[in-house]
Amino acid sequence: MKSLAVSGFILALLFCTPNGNAQQDLIELREKYKQAKSARDSGRTTEYRRLKDELQDYPLYVYLEYHEALVRLSSRTAEQAQEIRNSLSESVLSDEFFRRWLDAQAKAGKWQTYTQYYLPSNDAAEECRYLHALHRIGQTDKAMSLVPALWIIGVSQPKECDPIFGTWISNGNVTSEIAWQRLQLAVQEDSLVLARYLMRFFPTADRSRAQLLYDVHVRPGLVKNIRRFADDDWGRTALVHGLREYAIDNGLEALELWNEYRSQFSFDTETLLGTENYLAFWAAREGQLIRPINQDFDAQTIERIADTAMALEQWQWAHQWLEQYPDAEQTQYKWRFWSSILKLKLGREEARSALKALATERTYYGFLAADELGLPIQLNGFSWPNPHAQREKYLGDPRIARIFELYALGDQTSAKKEWRWLLPQIDQDAKSWIAHEIANIGWTYDAIQAAFSADALDLIDARFPMLYLDAFKRNAHMTNVSLPVLLAITRQESAFNANAVSPVGARGLMQLMLPTARRTASNIRAPRPSPTALLDPATNIYLGSHHFVELLDEFHDNRVLAFAAYNAGAHRVKEWIKNASGMDTRVWIETIPFAETRNYVKSVIAFTQVYSQILDIPVPVLADHERTIP
User: Fold this and answer.
1) Is the pLDDT of residue 363 over 50?
2) At 42, which helix (H) or strand (E)?
C-alpha cells in the first residue's frame, strides 16, 4: 500500500484558488481518477495500473486501494485484512473495509476467524451474527449469556437474530418472568405484533395476567373497572400502564382514578411518585392547575404545570412551580425567560437584569427577551478572519483534503461519511472550518448538518443559507409576505434541500403535500402540479408562498397561528385556540399539544429574526395584533 500522505504539490493545488496551470493540473488529476475507476470497472487492467501509479499522491488514491482490497475478500487472511485496515486508517474506509471482510468470513462460514476479529457494533444484526458464530465454534455458554440483552427489548429484532434466538428459546431460556419483562417493553413501544407473539411463552396459569397488560394497552378505559386488577406485581403493572395510556386523552380523569386507587394497592414509593408525576403532567396538559406544590416532580412535569398556570394567569402558582425546577437545569433558556417574566409580573423589577442577559443570546427565548425589553436582536455570529489562510492550514490534513475532493467530484455520500467519521477526532476549530468550507463550496444542506454535528452554532452563514433568493424575493413581493418569513419556513421545513421528500410525502423546499399544493394551485388558478413538479424550486416556492398566504388570511394575518397551521393543519389550530382568546401568545405557544408543532413555531419565529438581521429587513418578533390570541 502507498502512503496516504498528500504531496505538497497536490496540496498547493487544493488550497489555492485554482488558476492557470495549477487549475489545469487539478482538473487533469480528477479526470485521471475518473478514468482509473472506469478502467477498473471495465477490466482494462493495464490502463488502470498506469493511471493508478500516476495518482499516488492524489487524496482519493485511498479509494482506489479500498476497491482493490474488496476483490476476493473472503480469501484474504486475517493478517492481510489487518494490514489493509491499517493502510486505510486515515479514512472512514478503514473500519468499513474490515467490517465487510468480517461479513465475508461469516458468509464463508469461517466462524473462528469471524469471532476472533469481530468489531463490537450497535447494529443488532451484526451482534446476533456474532453470537451465532460463538455458538457455531462451541462457545455456546458465552453466546447464550449474551442473548437476553438483545432479546429483552420492546421491538422486533432483524431476521439475522432468528437463528441464535431460536437456539436460546429451544434451550428453555424463556421463563414467564423474562417474557413478562419483554411484554412490558413491547407495550411501552406500542409493538402490538410483538406483544401478541410473546403470549405464546406464558403458561396457562400466567397467560390471563399477561393478557391483561395487552388488553389495557389497547383499551385503556378498562382501568375504570378496578376489580380486574390484582394487588400483585403483574396486576399493579397493568393498572399503572393502563392509567398512563388513559391519561393521554383523559388526563384529569386518570389522575382522579389514581387518587382513588392508590391506597387500595401496595405500590412501592418509586411507583407512587413516578405515576403521580406522569399523570399530573397529562392533567396539566388538559388545563388542570395542579396543587399543592410537589417538590419531587421532574423538570418536564414542573414545566408543564407552570405553563398551565400561566395560561390560567395564575402567576403566583406558576412562579412557585418554576421555583421547584432542578438547580442544575435552571440555565435552560426557557426557564430563564419565564422565571424572569413571572418575577416581573409579581413586581420584582430586579428580574430585568436576568432578562437583559438572556437578550444577548441567539435563541428563541433570547429574541423574546429582547422584544420584551425593546432591545435589538443580537446574532453573535462567527466568520473566519482569513479564510484563505485557514484553507491552506486545514487542507494540509489529507483527511480533510479528501472530503473536499469527494465533493469536487460530486460524491456527496462518501464526503458525508468522511466528515461524520472525522469530526469526533479533531479539535473544535477544525470542525468549525470544515462546516464553513462545505457551505462555502455550495453544499448547503450538508453544511447545516456539519455545523450542527460540529457544535459550530455560531456559523451563521453555514447554518442559515439563502438559496433560490431571486425566486423567494419575487414571491415575497407577489404575496406581500416578508422575505425573512419565507426563508425561515423553508429553513425549518427542508433546510433548502429542493429534493426533500418526508416520510408522509411532503415534497420540496417548502415541504408541500400534493393535495395541499393542488388545492392552492386551484385557488390561485395556477397549473395543477405533479409530484415531480413540486421538486422544482420555482414551482414549490410559488405554491408554498401562496399556501402560507391562505393560512394568514384564515387566521387574520397572525403569523404565529399560520406557522402552527403550516405544520399541523388549520383544523387543529382552530381547536387549540377555542378557549384561548386573550391569552398571551408566548404562553399559548408553550401549551401547543404537539411537541413537534410547538418546537416548529419557536424555530420559525427565531429563524425569521436571524434572516431579518442578515438581510437588514426589519420584522417584529411579534406584531401588536399577534401578542394575544384572538
Assistant:
1) yes
2) helix 20-42
